[in-house]
Amino acid sequence: QVQLVESGGGLVQTGGSLRLSCAASGRTFSSKAMGWFRQAPGKEREFVAAISWNGGSTRYADSVKGLFIISRDNAKKTVSLQMNSLKPEDTAVYYCASSASYPTFTGDSWGQGTQVTVSS
């Protein structure tokens, strides 16, 4: 089991960028796939991006493909989400999660979330 803490959220204008980070503790981080999800007010949580245990494979939701980049550093036990060209519809609480499988994401552990607000 890993414990996850997100950071890096905030308020940004349309077209701006933010970089979210997720710090993990626990000995199994490097064997886990990692992902980012988001939940906007009144909506269900949705998948944003995922990365395999060694970073060799990534996948994205169609809505963020080409705009967001997920990466990881197993030595530092961190996973990041670089978000570019942000739009108001990207406003949500963003969650980091781990998974025992990839590309099917099981969501074994979740962070508490970090708020991202994009102003128009």
What does this structure look like?
It contains no helices and eleven strands. By secondary structure, the protein is mostly beta strands. Strands 2, 4, 5, 6, 9, 10 and 11 form a seven-stranded mixed beta sheet that branches. A four-stranded antiparallel beta sheet has the order 1-3-8-7, with no helix packed on it. It is globular, with a radius of gyration of 13 Å. The chain starts with a strand and ends with a strand. The mean pLDDT is 96.
Write the layout of secondary structure elements.
Elements: E1 3-7, E2 10-13, E3 18-25, E4 33-39, E5 46-51, E6 58-60, E7 68-73, E8 78-83, E9 92-99, E10 109-110, E11 114-119
Parallel strand pairs: 2-11
Antiparallel strand pairs: 1-3, 3-8, 4-5, 4-9, 5-6, 7-8, 9-10, 9-11
Q: What is the mean predicted local confidence, pLDDT? A: 96
General form = globular
The largest sheet, given as strand count, sense and whether it forms a barrel, is: 7 strands, mixed
Number of strands: 11
Count every helix, treating DSSP H or I runs of 4 or more residues as helices.
0
What is the oligomeric state here?
single chain
Percent in strands: over 45%
Taking Cα atoms only, what radius of gyration do you get, to the nearest Å? 13 Å
Percent of residues in helices: under 10%
Q: SSE order, as H and E?
A: EEEEEEEEEEE
Distance between the termini: 39 Å
Helix/strand class? mainly beta
Q: Report the uncertain regions.
A: none
